[in-house]
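Input structure tokens:
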């Protein structure tokens, strides 16, 4: 089944609602340049811009990730997430190039676990974090839950820093500036659940 990137969904919604990039930039507080990068290149520095754009379009964050919505339970079988990378986040490298959008390289790779669930309020992801990935701190409405599956995770939350190990989990208010990264030279895999109120 063909999947749509968040950028393709944003373009589709803008065209459906006759909203220009300029208008969307005004409503969301996101620059036209960044909206253009998200639409054309799939460039996403972190989740916060997607959440602001979704709110400005009057849709759930999940709408930017959806393909075919189901009313009943949505099951994602083991192994199905390997080919379900929906987007990557990350800062440009030292040469100014955007974070690559292919799995296994710089950036955080988000694999949606329930993109087909109709009317959902939580967004569950498997996230792969590479040791060389660079992220901005992010702050947005809602809450997040993280469970470390593999590797050692460094969490910056406000003015505090914590290291989480496999089996550890954390639940926090995402309005506080936060960032996750590898605590050492090994990659990290986490289950992340993001809740954003409408």
């Amino acid at each position: 089944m063909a999947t749509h990137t968040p950028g393709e969904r944003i373009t589709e919604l803008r065209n459906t609602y006759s909203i220009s990039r300029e208008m969307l930039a005004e409503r969301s507080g996101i620059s036209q340049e960044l909206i253009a990068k998200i639409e054309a290149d799939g460039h996403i520095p972190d989740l916060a811009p997607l959440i602001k754009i979704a709110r400005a379009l009057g849709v759930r964050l999940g709408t930017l990730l959806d393909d075919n919505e189901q009313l009943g339970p949505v099951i994602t079988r083991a192994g199905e997430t390997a080919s379900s990378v929906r987007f990557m986040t990350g800062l440009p490298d030292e040469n100014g190039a955007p974070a690559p959008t292919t799995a296994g390289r710089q950036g955080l790779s988000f694999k949606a676990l329930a993109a087909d669930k109709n009317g959902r309020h939580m967004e569950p992801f498997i996230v792969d974090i590479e040791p060389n990935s660079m992220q901005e701190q992010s702050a947005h409405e809602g809450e997040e839950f993280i469970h470390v599956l593999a590797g050692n995770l460094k969490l910056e939350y406000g003015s505090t820093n914590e290291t989480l190990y496999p089996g550890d989990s954390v639940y926090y208010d995402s309005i506080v500036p936060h960032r996750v990264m590898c605590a050492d030279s090994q990659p990290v895999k986490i289950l992340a659940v993001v809740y954003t109120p409408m």
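The longest strand covers residues 122-129. The chain has a mean pLDDT of 82.
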